[in-house]
Specification:
The chain is α/β, with parallel strands linked by helices. The protein contains 11 helices and 17 strands. It folds into 2 domains: 281 residues, FAD/NAD(P)-binding domain; 110 residues.
């Protein structure tokens, strides 16, 4: 590989106490929580909408459990949904989330990807962003990486892991889509991943596996997940699947975008042909971005593991209490779910140390890129849990900026005190 060296002076455009990168579920929660603590807060997003996977990615319903009193409840109220409830209205969500950020005095920058950092001795002092006017520099006292891919931590040189231990394979990617004109009075609808409905005398799940093997569904699309919406006659479909895709490689992602959009037509025609209630359905809309389940997991001061989840482990430095979702591994090497899928966990804690990347002093992570193993990640990566993570790191970053310390120097007790004041349950009642 050859390189071209260049240098240029960058204008310092903005200066903030806290800069949050990534406006997905974790980033939204982090930015609002930081601003509410009185910190001058920026939220930087590479797309033209906020919400990340659950808006641009059309991912829903919002899954995962956390303890009472978190910001998750507030976000559900904004979307008109509830825990384990129906799929939200994406268009209404785009508007309500923007109003929410505006009301909380978060400075929002859309279509503004971060492309580089200014850092020294583990301290990030500036974020280089790409704009239509060229590169600019945002100064920050504290930075939160809520990019999903751990992009900021990566640029800062953090250690990370990708995929499962034995071969590095990650979970497959998906494009979600919404069907309308569905007769929901009789339509097959899934609870969790599966449905008890029967088609031609066979369980719906087994029927899909059979038709996949016969070539009537795309390769590896052996499960079709059909979820109800808050809107009458609409069903959210989670079915398309492309394996062996590196979500950090633009060639892989382009290939997946093309192939998965072809799969949407095949899956829709299958439902029209075989499944009651879908005879007259058609595609209303589809995700604007690829649904990537797994890329970098940034190594932190503690690495959450699946034994912590299975035992329902409690931590002294708890930040997210009673996190709960099955170990949900979509098969990296074929269709359906991986062996050991749907291993039920005991409600567990996520400790402060998981959000502190090793060797970096004013950066915290939130969302699916926090420090954990491949199997633990398969549980905590879901929306509700990521929102609760964002709330904790937003508070921690704001307090750190206020007191002129790093998040490690601040200590977890100060963050817990604020969460408890807000009514968040951090211990068993």
């Amino acid at each position: 590989m050859s390189y071209c060296k260049f240098s240029k002076e960058l204008p310092i455009t903005k200066e903030y106490d806290v800069v949050v990168v990534g406006a997905g579920p974790a980033g939204l929660s982090a930015a609002v929580s930081s601003a509410r603590m009185g910190a001058k807060t920026a939220l930087i997003e590479k797309l033209g909408v906020v919400g990340g996977a659950f808006i641009a990615g059309h991912v829903g319903p919002l899954m995962g459990g956390v303890s009472k009193g978190t910001i998750v409840e507030e976000i559900h109220k904004l979307l008109g949904t509830y825990f384990w409830g129906p799929m939200h209205d994406i268009e209404k969500g785009k508007i309500s989330l923007l109003h929410w950020l505006n009301e909380e005095d978060v400075d929002l920058y859309l279509q503004t990807p971060v492309v580089d950092l200014i850092q020294q001795d583990g301290i990030i002092s500036g974020l280089v962003v790409s704009t239509k006017m060229g590169l600019e520099l945002f100064k920050a006292k504290q930075v939160i990486d809520a990019t999903g891919d751990g992009m900021i931590a990566y640029l800062a040189g953090a250690d990370y892991s990708i995929g499962r231990d034995e071969d590095g394979l990650v979970q497959p990617v998906t494009l979600m889509f919404t069907l309308t004109n569905v007769n929901t009075e009789v339509a097959v609808i899934c609870k969790a991943e599966e449905s008890e409905a029967e088609i031609n005398g066979k369980n719906f799940v087994e029927f899909c596996k059979e038709k996949c093997a016969q070539g009537e569904l795309p390769e590896n699309v052996s499960i079709i997940r059909l979820y109800p919406s808050v809107n009458a006659g609409e069903i959210m479909v989670n079915a398309t699947q492309e394996n062996y895709i590196d979500g950090l490689n633009y060639n892989d992602m382009t290939k997946a975008e093309i192939n998965l959009r072809k799969q949407i037509e095949t899956i829709t025609n299958f439902l029209i042909k075989y499944v009651p209630g879908y005879e007259n359905c058609y595609v209303k809309d589809s995700a604007d971005v690829l649904g990537i389940r797994e890329t970098r997991r940034i190594k932190g001061d503690y690495t959450l593991n699946d034994l912590d989840l299975l035992s329902g482990r409690r931590f002294e430095d708890v930040m997210v209490h009673e996190a709960s979702f099955v170990i949900d591994i979509h098969n990296p090497d074929g269709g359906g779910q991986a062996e050991g899928y749907a291993t039920h966990v005991q409600p567990y804690d996520i400790p402060y140390r998981c959000f502190l990347p090793c060797g970096l002093n004013n950066l915290m992570t939130a969302g699916r890129c926090i420090s954990g193993t491949h199997r633990a990640h398969a549980s905590y990566r879901v929306m509700n849990i990521c929102m609760a993570m964002g709330q904790t790191v937003g508070i921690a970053a704001a307090l750190s900026a206020k007191h002129g310390v790093t998040p490690r120097e601040l200590g977890y007790q100060a963050v817990q005190k604020e969460l408890i004041t807000l009514g968040v349950e951090l211990v068993d009642c």
